[in-house]
Amino acid sequence: MVVSNTALQREFGGAIVPHVRDETAFDPALYEPSECRARFGIPPSPKVVLFLGTARAHKGLEALARAVGSIKDSSYRLVVVGTIADKRVIDHLHEISSERLILIPNQPFSKIPEILSCSNVVCLPQDPSSPISRYQLPAKAIDAIAMGVPLLVTPTESMRSLISEGLATPVDPRRLTEAIVSAAEDRRTEHTKRKQRELYLSKYSYAAAAETLHTIIKRARARRLPEKDEQLEELLRQQRRIFGTSDGAGNAERPTGKDVVLFWKQNDTTLYGRRHDMVISYLASRADIRKVVVFDAPMSESELAFRRTRVNEPTQDALIYVRTYQKLAGFFDTNKISFNVFVYAPSRDGEMGAARPGPSGDAYLAFVARTLESRNVRADNAIFWFYPKITHALALIERFKPEQVVVDVVDDHRAWPDVSEDEHLRLTSHYAELLGAASAVFANCPPVVEAMRSYHPDIKLVPNGCDDRIRVDPPEGDPNFDELRAFDGKIIGFVGNVEKKLDLELLEKIAGRFPDCLVVLIGSTHANPDALRLLRFPNVRMPGVVPYDVVGAWIAEFDVGIIPHVDSQLTRHMNPLKQYVYLALGVPVVCTDIANVDRSHGAVRVAVTHEAFLQEVADILEARCDRIDGAAMFIEENSWKKRFEKHVDLLLSR
Fold first, then answer.
1. Which has fewest Cβ within 10 Å: 20, 358, 458, 552?
2. What is the mean pLDDT of residues 8-18?
3. Which residues contact 49 (CB under 8 A, 6 or more apart)?
4. Are 141 and 21 in contact (CB under 8 A)?
5. Which of 578, 531, 534 is CA-nearest to residue 555?
6. What pLDDT sits at residue 180?
7. How confident is the model over 389-393, as a mean pLDDT?
8. Residue 273 near residue 281 (C-beta atoms within 8 A)
9. Is the pLDDT of residue 250 over 50?
10. What is the pLDDT of residue 627?
């Protein structure tokens, strides 16, 4: 059992987990007070006494208004943030505060740090006789502490810990005016402010709560269960997942079949239906594969927090933030597949290499070891399957000595834009070492095969394929999809991240040439924000990332699927997966003249010039090319099973 303060603990017992705030957002160094005041219409010079939250009797708002109104310095202002519906209450507060009241309507939670930056003091003069005050630790107190604003409180039992720690000052209701003036002067030294910030981080931050909860869960797990409890057993299973402990599971009898431990180079597993997602699904479908344990790339806590701040932008960040936590909680796990990601604190685990900050090798290898133990996976009897570039690949091979090593190369990162000479050399060394250590190597297109052949002469070409189970169930409650489905005209669609490999000039010509059609560009703009200029066309829609489990319904509405790539080093070293998705759903395809497109299917039209591309799209939209038939046969001939079956058979026969 957990409670938020000492008063509740005395009444009910349990461990204390106080209210906490996100230290990456609640940081006074991130905000300029004068700019924040200007945004909320607060004059720059007055001392501001802040009341934040719903106006209720036990919170002492009336006493606070009287106290501010009686201050001799008339420049003081009481700023109340939170809509007050009753005009009589507003009039009364204006009167007793000597017209020093500033009202700001309800604000979203994300604005709280900015609001606190406007204030000189936060005062919570609660009624000590109220049962609510007696047992409540107001979250607004933690808000103020997190932002370093002087805090005045009534010394109720629930507030005593904050007072004893020096984070809040007790106030006598009869001397409230003097206390406000003294606190607003803020005579704290820089040393005191720094110590208070450190105390907040150690006890009232997200990181502190995570440590406390981790300890509580470990203690709960250590207790013997008096009898079988299915719900608690499920909780323990999830804790084994999250914290990488086995509870003796490693001693259990292992079912037959080979284990595959797959390492993906990014953090988007489950999101896009990429090649590795399809490989995971295919491997898990085989009876001779016992378990597929998946590791996304390690991610720092600060990077995760940054992604959360971009929830209102048409990028992948918000979904990656959410899905990372879903993976930590086992949301996508099945009886055969386990999704994992190492989230680390850079300050504790250090950095690795000059190319990109990362966890220390020891910390990451220990996480992998704990995870494999908790899944009852023996590395020396497993296949390690890598998608380079994987920073710790060679260390993983050396540490765990897997039975076989597979490398599936889907990109030659040396062909990407803006790769420095040093990075090119580092990547070359990485490919040579990793492929040299592999039992089998695959690549998705001929140029990548040739680029990697010198590192592994027996490299195999395995092109991308078709998912034979694409869902087309319409998503519920999505206004963007509802608009698409209700549209009476034709729809020109693209699916894939809106990166620099797209020909934006061609997309502008498409939007201008077909004004009566919707041009729908599904994908993240994080790598090419300039693409947002396309939104100036009234017929262009950019809904952001649509997860793979629902994107089939969107594509099924397309009248034509486009691949408007530029010809570049990058596109010459890739095999566009989206063409297989379009064709599997019966959508005709128009593509620019790029390498590695499957031109054998009659529904794929390749255009050499912009004008030819526009004409091909027009022909399809004018019904000179009907929606394609034979999708089932195309899927069967190009399925992922067809692509990988003989290669996996060979691996398992060794």
1. 458
2. 79
3. 64, 68, 76, 77, 78, 79, 119, 120, 121, 122, 123, 180, 184
4. no
5. 578
6. 93
7. 90
8. no
9. no
10. 57
Number of CB atoms found within 10 A of residue 220's CB: 12
Give the C-alpha separation, 492 to 540, whole Å: 10
**Residue 351's pLDDT band (cuts 50, 70, 90):** very low
Which structure tokens are listed for 203? 């006890």
pLDDT at 58: 52
CB 528 within 8 A of CB 448: no
504-513 vs 610-621: helix crossing angle, rounded to 10? 40
Is the backbone peptide bond immediately before 389 cis, with ω within 30 degrees of 0? Answer: yes
Integer-rounded Cα Rg, in Å, for the chain is: 30
- Cα 175 to its chain centre, rounded Å, is 48
Which tokens go with 463? 């092109």
Q: What is the pLDDT of residue 211?
A: 78
Q: 177-192 burial by CB neighbour count: b if 16+ within 10 A, else e?
A: bebbbbbbeeeeeeee
Mean pLDDT value across residues 522-546? 92
Tokens of 332: 């996508």
Kind and range of the H or E element at 427?
Answer: helix 421-436
613: tokens are: 């591309």
Q: Which of 101, 95, 89 is nearest to 46 (CA)?
A: 101
Cα distance between residue 179 and residue 193, in whole Å: 19
Tell me: the pLDDT tens digits for 559-576? 999 999 999 888 888 888
Q: Is the pTM of this model over 0.70?
A: no
DSSP string, 278-347: HHHHHHHH-TTEEEEEEEPPPEEHHHHHHHHTTTTSSSSHHHHHHHHHHHHTTTT--SSEEEE--EE-HH
Which SS3 state, helix, strand or coil, does residue 460 take?
strand
Strands 289-295, 48-52: pairing is unpaired
Measure the CA–CA gap between 276 and 281, rounded to whole angstroms. 9
CB-CB contact of 627 with 588 (8 Å): yes
Residue from 242, 234, 524, 528 nearest 375 by CA: 242
Rounded CA-CA distance 215/209 in Å is 10
The string of pLDDT tens digits covering residues 572-627 is: 888 889 999 999 999 999 999 998 888 877 788 999 999 999 999 999 998 755 55
Question: Which 3 state secondary structure label does DSSP give 535?
Answer: helix
In whole angstroms, what is the distance from residue 344 CA to residue 452 CA?
Answer: 32
Phi, psi at residue 263, to the nearest 5°? -115, 115
User: With bands split at pLDDT 50, 70 and 90, how would you rate the model's confidence at 345?
Assistant: confident
CA torsion sign, 641 to 643 to 644 to 646?
A: positive
How far apart are the C-alpha atoms of 457 and 450, rounded to whole Å?
9
Side-chain-facing half-sphere of 411: CA atoms under 13 Å = 19
Say yes or no to pLDDT of 275 above 90.
yes
Query: What does the mean pLDDT of the chain come to?
Result: 87
Cα separation, 8 vs 21, in Å, equals 20
For position 60, what pLDDT does the model report?
78
